[in-house]
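Build the 3D complex.
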Amino acid sequence: MAEIAFYGFSALSIGAALTILFTRNVMYAALCLFLTLLGVAALFVLAGADFLAITQILIYVGGVLVLLIFGIMLTYRPDRESNQKKNLVLTSHLNQFWGGLVALGIFGVLFWVILNANFMIIHSPQLAEFTPQRSTLRSIGVHLMTTHVWAFEVAGLLLLMALVGAAYIAAQREK
Amino acid sequence: MLPIVLLSILGLVVLFLGFQKSKNLLLPATLLVLAIVLVANFLHWNDMPSLYFKNMLFENKFTMAFSGIVIFSAFLIVALTRGFVDDESAQPAEYYTLMLFSLVGAVMMIGFENLIMLFVGIEILSVSMFILTGSDKKNLRSNEAALKYFLMGAFATGIMLFGMALLYGATGSFNLTAIKGYVMANNAPSAMLYVGLLMLLIGMLFKVSAAPFHFWTPDVYDGAPTIFTTYMSTIVKTAGFAAIYRLLSGSFSGIYSFWWMTLAVITVLTLLAGNITAVYQTSFKRMMAYSSISHAGYLLLSLTALTNQSQSAIVFYSLAYSIATISAFGVLMLVAKETGVHSYENAERFEAFNGLGKKNPLLAFVLTVSMLSLAGIPLTAGFWGKFFVFSSAADRGLTWMLVIAILMSTVGIYYYFKAIIAAYMREGELSAIKVSPFYRLILIATTIITLVFGLMPDFLKGLV
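Done.
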């Protein structure tokens, strides 16, 4: 049963990702991105990473994707001259040869790595606490407030900086 | 780890100072903050190397020296912003705060012990650079540069993060010492470890603009406001090289034979691409962008060698390079402002320096010393920088790379001298440029530092 779910969700993610790659319609691409992210979230659930799956849905599906669709909506200028045409936002494909070559290269390397990987769980104290039956939320919370508290704090600085930068770029000049 | 805490808190204070009507207090306040941080950085100089925040950050003389270079460079660059901020009639509080916060990222990249810290540090530095690159909002080239930098940078970050995940998968830890322990225990590294290291290095080499990941550099350095080009080509590069050195020497020195060839190929490509393309540039600013690629090549040469001397060699080289770059761009900013009233495009060409030597002997002298230092002519700090880098490569026996590096540094002399020739031998209608006393003081200081380290290199080399 778990295998059927795994292959089903994998096919969903990969199929939707390929559609993003080949479609020229930006709206379709955004909707397919939604399917891809949802499929990946399901794969996280199957791998026992419940927190990651919820975060994926909250941040990417709930936040980033809505932002993306708003972005398309607000930057799109409809063609007023011809009302007959459909309102499509189309992209064009450039540099297909080099882009394809780099992508194939990265794919080949990762494929080779995954084939050669040894997926035994490494015995380290951090991983020893991990038990797939229980929720991972508790140990993530404890680590975030103890061993990784500094990374957590500094991520706040990163967000503050992004906020200052966004306000600066969006602000109108006085003159 | 006082600098990180101080920079974060005092950065906020500077941001709040921006609420005041008068903006005159901002520059002195920022300089004061940087001076305090610089002093705080060296407070623990004589202490033993130590770990901070649950093994997240590491501090020893090497990291303190590098943080010192980064903070000192930032001090000099902020001191040169005076004219820039007047022109822009912008919100200087935001500029200064972003600069201070970006230094937090730089210091974290230098002192990381955990790969998570490296990642957050690189992100902080990069995000602030994306914003500062596009800060000249009315200039189309600045916008283009920011967008290009952002897209390429995001892609490189993705690759780097993938590399970190693979390293974690292979070794079971993000900690440098733990990774070193794993590498020592398992003599033949797995495919996962090797590819993880490679992807992590690609991401970091992108940030220091090594070939073949340098394609963004000329456009971004050319399009960004000159003051932030200076910032990028000194601070981002210095912190990036410190991070690569920490990573390679801290975790992977045990499997030197597995990665040195990859790094050697990248080094040679960087040296060739940077120096040969720089010859054909007509814009001084674009030439400096390519020259920064070539300097990345010399620093990579020392990293490829990775001997006991590499550490002090890259400290010295980074300092010499940063100081010379700051004074060169400092002169360019003055000259471009003077000539660029009508034609912005031509202001940054070599011809802008024509006749500089007649009316502005001080500026011409500062430019000459910085060019000589970048070219690696004796009696300047740049010569000793190159000397230490080359001697560390010679210790490892990398003779063929050494030959290429020396050939390329002679090519470098050609394009650096183009600026000197323009300043002294060409006729031009450049009038005397009014330089504020403070600006003059900074330029004289950078020139004196370059000359002093050129005469007495042991002074600094003995410290680290």
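The radius of gyration of chain A is 21 Å.
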